[in-house]
Description:
The structure is a single chain. By secondary structure, the chain is of the alpha+beta class. It has one domain: Arc Repressor Mutant, subunit A, CATH 1.10.10.10. 63% of the residues lie in helices and 15% in strands. The protein contains six helices and three strands. Strands 1-3-2 form a three-stranded antiparallel β-sheet. Helix 3 (32-43) packs across helix 5. The longest helix is centred in the last third of the chain and has 23 residues, at 95-117. The two termini are 16 Å apart. 15% of the residues are buried.
Amino acid sequence: MRKxxxxxxxxxxxxxxxxxxxxxxxxxIHERLRLGIVSALAVNESQSFGDLxxxxxxxxxxxxxxxxxxxxxxxxxxxKSFEGRLxxxxxxxxxAGRRALERYLEHMEALIRATREA
Length: 118
């Protein structure tokens, strides 16, 4: 029984593409805080700067830097407005950001499956 399982595992490994041909993780999303931003926006239509800051337990500067990187990649969109005299920054996930998150999650799921099958 054990030999059969080893044989099947070896066959699967032989069918898998070499590591050099495996798709790369999206490093932009893989960073912890950016993954948190994208994930929060995937389940909410939009989030304010303050809400994201509280949710992710981070500083203004840290959130700003990571949000800007996602915005530059066009993964998120930012809208700035005023509520009375107070500035309000609102973020939403773009279609490109949603596709990038889906690819990232599929990649991570494939890694988990491969690890469990090994």
